Amino acid sequence: MWKLEVERVPLFQVWPKQNPDINYIGIDIQKSVLSYALDKVLEVGVPNIKLLWVDGSDLTDYFEDGEIDRLYLNFSDPWPKKTP
Q1: Known catalytic residues?
Q2: Which terminus of the chain is more solvent-facing, meaning fewer CB atoms within 10 Å of its CB: N or C?
Q3: For residue 69, what are the contacts with CB-CB under 8 A and spacing of at least 6?
């Protein structure tokens, strides 16, 4: 079972510890957000968290139909800024 999370808040520090039988994936398109998340994941030290540096709109490129059981979108940006 996989749950997909897109967030910068520390929920991913709590849920994986409380649910070791569930795998969590954090995704973001920004390196700075994933760097922050990686620091927190390493701090918590649980094996059921993975991180992906991808655009959330491309999820069908990474997961098969039915592979994700639940999707949480937190702080998603419907109007991404153009990078210089």
Answers
A1: 77
A2: C
A3: 1, 2, 3
**Predicted confidence (pLDDT) per residue in 1-39, tens digit:** 444 454 544 566 778 888 889 888 888 888 888 888 888
* Residue whose C-alpha is closest to residue 76's, from 53, 57, 52: 57
Pairing of strands 2-6, 23-28: parallel
Helix (H, G, I), strand (E, B) or coil at 62: coil
Task: Indicate whether this model's pTM tops 0.85.
Answer: no
Contact 20, 6 (CB under 8 A): no
3-state secondary structure of 58: helix
Distance CA 62, CA 44 (A): 25
